[in-house]
């Protein structure tokens, strides 16, 4: 759906679909240069990263394998503690692999911090992160993210994979959710 279809639920459009696609094209070219001649494994973090993975991977001018991981916190308290539960693990053995974790957003950074540590223990040859969005003001831990799409303000954003109570993931753009929706 487009922002115009649900305009009462949104305040601002932060990043348009066109801007996202242009940025993913740019990042894909950069990643292809950096990983030239290497075996690249893209790991998408469900569910938010589905859109980024689909659009980024198709723009990548090289072959790459894909795998998925589903993680979730036990609730708000767990998010702040950084403890993550694996709901679906990788099907791939990471030994000797060049891994690029594909994320929709880095908020506090706690999910990625946990994932990076977890992946490091599995013997990957290299591990980098690509995140479409990052909220610098929300960071609780610093994540070394090599490929960042857009830095955005610390607002409640939805769309392009990002949800509120499982809704709005299918919005084409990234937009700020109107407070009346969640308060
Ligand atoms: C979101 C997002 C990241 C994480 C970022 O996932 O996709 O994985 O939160 O937040 P953090 O930097 O504060 O850890 P979420 O747990 O909402 O699950 P979802 O992808 O299924 O929506």
UniProtKB/TrEMBL annotation:
It is an enzyme of class 2 (transferase). Pathway: Purine metabolism; GMP biosynthesis via salvage pathway; GMP from guanine: step 1/1; Purine metabolism; IMP biosynthesis via salvage pathway; IMP from hypoxanthine: step 1/1. It holds the Pfam family Pribosyltran. Keywords: Cytoplasm, Glycosyltransferase, Magnesium, Metal-binding, Nucleotide-binding, Purine salvage, Transferase. GO terms for molecular function: glycosyltransferase activity. The keyword ATP-binding does not apply. It catalyses: GMP + diphosphate = guanine + 5-phospho-alpha-D-ribose 1-diphosphate; IMP + diphosphate = hypoxanthine + 5-phospho-alpha-D-ribose 1-diphosphate. CDD domains: PRTases_typeI. Gene3D superfamilies: 3.40.50.2020. Residues 18-164 form the Phosphoribosyltransferase domain. Belongs to the purine/pyrimidine phosphoribosyltransferase family. This is Hypoxanthine phosphoribosyltransferase. It comes from Microbacterium commune. The gene is hpt.
């Amino acid at each position: 759906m487009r922002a115009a279809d649900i305009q009462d639920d949104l305040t601002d459009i932060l990043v348009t679909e066109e801007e996202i696609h242009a940025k993913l094209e740019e990042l894909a070219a950069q990643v292809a240069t950096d990983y030239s001649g290497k075996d690249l494994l893209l790991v998408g973090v469900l569910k938010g990263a589905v859109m980024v993975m689909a659009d980024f991977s198709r723009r990548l001018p090289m072959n790459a394998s894909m795998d998925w991981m589903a993680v979730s916190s036990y609730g708000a308290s767990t998010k702040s503690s950084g403890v993550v539960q694996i709901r679906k693990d990788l099907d791939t053995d990471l030994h000797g692999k060049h891994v690029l974790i594909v994320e929709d957003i880095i908020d506090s950074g706690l999910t990625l911090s946990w994932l990076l540590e977890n992946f490091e223990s599995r013997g990957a040859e290299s591990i980098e992160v690509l995140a479409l969005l990052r909220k610098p003001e929300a960071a609780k831990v610093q994540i070394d993210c090599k490929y960042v799409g857009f830095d955005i303000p610390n607002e409640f954003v939805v769309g392009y994979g990002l949800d509120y109570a499982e809704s709005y993931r299918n919005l084409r753009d990234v937009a700020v959710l109107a407070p009346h929706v969640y308060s």
